[in-house]
Write a structure and sequence with these properties.
Keywords: Electron transport, FAD, Flavoprotein, Iron, Iron-sulfur, Metal-binding, Transport. Belongs to the ETF alpha-subunit/FixB family. It holds the Pfam family Fer4. The structure is a single chain. This protein is 26% helix and 23% strand. It is built from eleven helices and 21 strands. A hairpin with a 4-residue loop joins strand 13 and strand 14. The termini are far apart. The protein binds flavin-adenine dinucleotide. The site of flavin-adenine dinucleotide has 29 residues, from helix 8, helix 9, strand 20 and helix 11. Flavin-adenine dinucleotide (FAD) binds next to helix 8, helix 9, strand 20 and helix 11.
């Protein structure tokens, strides 16, 4: 809780202006805190009199962080292949491990996964832990979490990385709670402090308006989920060698409260804008679901897929699986054509690593032009049909 020392407080009001949550005010001669306080510490840092401090109750015994060493990656196996984000995690995991001169360990649960060992080692792993069992062919949150928890307790890695995918997002918080570790979700950048192994976990905060770098200095492992398509996978090196360990899987470990009755893939699951090389994205400027028919025509001509801003998704013009941005998907195509999209920061974080961005917008001051490689100032309902016509002419 936030403690205010009224003896020291001079009612200067600095705490009030430094609080982003409106949680502190100075009605008279001493500051007062309300229930909106998130214990972020901004007021404590800014108070010139040292009148504020945060009192924490240590619920957990102190972790001896020197017991922990190595970087661990949770690799995802889905529909008969390893999820691309797993190789991206190995790319960043390798860099972190080299900086700390420690092992890069990858844990891969699944039904029949031995055949992927070589590709994981080529991608940077020193040790591959295989949790292979027919029961693991289907994802069950509780079983995957039990396996990860057991492995973390045994191997004591200083860092655990997972993809910010549907699977990673559901299983990793479960594990972090079980091992009393800090967890930073949806990281877009990771670095490690060589001297003490502190993981610097950067992610968008306050609705994407700032990038926050988060540290978990007192507990281990330091756990982070990373958005797909943000980190580059390492170049595979088939000459690398590594250790392979088949984990013993006891019956107890495979106990589940979940019964998988049937697996049905929805039409949305077929949409994978994260793997498309060309994306034609539409926003509120499309005005209706019909606007996306025009966009689809352009996508067909270019051999690409259709993406969207949240405004278009929230309007019900296109399903959520197409949404790009902070609360949607992160994409990095070769070409991204943003049509009738203003370029809000929450959208930009999802597409700014595209190689070429073309923006079509009738407002020449739209922020999207700041991130665009090429900009077309004009009405999309005139520009897109003209573009389609030209593409057809070139083809014929
Ligand atoms: P607008 O901002 O309304 O822009 C429409 C643009 O179309 C304007 O620039 C206009 O000039 C142009 N236009 C209109 N008509 C035409 C025409 N005929 N021809 C050419 N141009 C035209 N947004 C996302 O996209 N993805 C996210 O994941 C996401 N997550 C969010 C998370 C949080 C916590 C919050 C607070 C917001 C999030 N948003 C997200 C919303 C974001 O802030 C913007 O509101 C949203 O991106 C705006 O979508 P837009 O660009 O389509 O619409």
């Amino acid at each position: 809780m936030l403690i205010i020392d009224c003896e020291k407080c001079t009612a200067c009001g600095v705490c009030e202006t430094s609080c982003a949550f409106g949680a502190i005010s100075v009605p008279e001669d001493c500051a007062v805190v309300n229930e909106s306080c998130t214990l972020c510490g901004a007021c404590v840092d800014n108070c010139p009199e040292g009148a504020l401090h945060i009192h924490t109750i240590d619920k957990h015994p102190q972790t001896d962080i020197s017991d922990y060493s190595g970087i661990m990656v949770f690799a995802e196996y889905r529909h008969g292949k390893i999820a691309p984000v797993s190789y991206e995690l190995l790319g960043i995991g390798r860099k972190l491990a080299d900086k700390r001169c420690v092992q890069l360990i990858v844990i891969l649960p699944g039904g029949k996964v031995t055949e992927y060992t070589d590709s994981l080692i080529a991608a940077g792993a020193d040790t591959v832990l295989l949790a292979e069992h027919p029961f693991l062919e289907q994802f069950r949150e509780d079983v995957y979490a039990n396996i990860l928890e057991t492995v973390i307790r045994q191997y004591k890695p200083e860092v655990v990385l997972a993809g910010a995918t549907a699977i990673g997002r559901s299983v990793i918080p479960y594990v972090a709670t079980a091992v009393d570790a800090g967890l930073t979700a949806d990281c877009t950048r990771l670095e490690i402090r060589e001297e003490d192994g502190t993981l610097l976990q950067t992610r968008p905060a306050f609705g994407g308006n700032i990038m926050a770098t988060i540290e978990c200095p007192q507990t281990r492992p330091q756990m982070a989920t990373v958005r797909p398509n943000v980190m580059a996978p390492a170049q595979p090196d088939p000459s690398r060698s590594g250790e392979v360990v088949h984990l013993p899987l006891t019956e107890e470990l495979l106990q589940s409260q979940v019964e998988v009755v049937e697996t049905v893939s929805s039409a949305d699951d077929q949409v994978n804008i994260q793997e498309a090389e060309i994306l034609v994205a539409g926003g509120r400027g499309l005005e209706s679901a019909k606007g996306f028919t025009l966009l689809r025509e352009l996508a067909v001509e270019l051999g690409g897929s259709v993406a969207a801003s949240r405004a278009a998704v929230d309007s019900g013009w296109i399903p959520y699986a197409h949404q790009v941005g902070q609360t949607g998907k992160t994409v990095s195509p070769k070409l991204y054509i943003a049509c009738g999209i203003s370029g809000a920061v929450q959208h930009a974080v999802g597409m700014q690593s595209a190689e070429i961005v073309v923006a079509i917008n009738r407002d020449k001051n739209a922020p999207v032009f700041d991130i665009a490689t090429y900009g077309v100032v004009g009405d999309l309902f005139e520009v897109i049909p003209e573009l389609i016509k030209r593409l057809q002419e070139v083809k014929n």
